[in-house]
Amino acid sequence: MIEYKAVTLEDKEKINKILTADPQIGSEYCFGNIYMWSEAYNAKIGFYKDFFMLKMKEDEKPYYSFPVGNGDLKECLDVLKNEGKEKNHEVSFYNVSKKNLEKLDKLVDCKFKITKNDGQGDYIYLVKDLAELKGKKYKSKRNHISYFLKNFEYEYEEINKDNLEECYQMSLEWNKLNKANIEEYESKEPQAIKRAFENFDYLGLVGALIRSNNKIIAYTFGEKINDYMFCTHVEKAYADVRGAYPLINQQFAENTINNFEYVNREEDLGIEGLRKAKQSYRPVMLLEKYYAICDD
User: Is the pTM of this model over 0.70?
Assistant: First the structure.
């Protein structure tokens, strides 16, 4: 039987070792992201030999992340299936990629009910595209940035211990301004951001901000997923400052994450405005994700 516990900072080395052995590109498979959100969603972590998985409840039914690791995956999946039988609940996986759905089908003696997890697919881009914004498809982004540059002076700063608190306070103000438009995810976000900022350097997080008139008007941060891909976890800007969003995106790609080929800018949460914004940057890939529920 697998034992599950709260995610702690002490799990970082073990999880990163597993992720190095079994590299992923999904946003849920990097330790900083796991740690910052696990408390808000009461997600527990379990280890089985050289695998790890998260377990969380939705409507009191447990869901597992697809196990990641190096070893006998079938054995690990069988242990999870037996756990479901012993505790009399379905074995359900969330945010499963197409690649991992194929593994489930081959390795688990079970008929899975597959449902697309709309709003949870990761948008993946070429960093070079976001930094250069070349061509007709990015004309509107360049126009917004040009407007900003003509009307505002700004400073670009890396996030560090001296400006973390300012970034957090900006997040709280942003949430107040957007209260009518945010749902449960955003109501949990300040808790997750605070957890990230309290351990920013230890978690290996990297970020930057735009300051204008001595005030932070935009910031972003994330972490390395693997040697060729960065993952942006949070991006905030004041919507009434025209050009703030495209500028922080472009500057971060050009100045801070330019040593990566790709950037995963995570999901759209099923929010139409967010979906349009992410699509407008022309992703090179949408990493679709699914629920897989064992019907046996």
Answer: yes
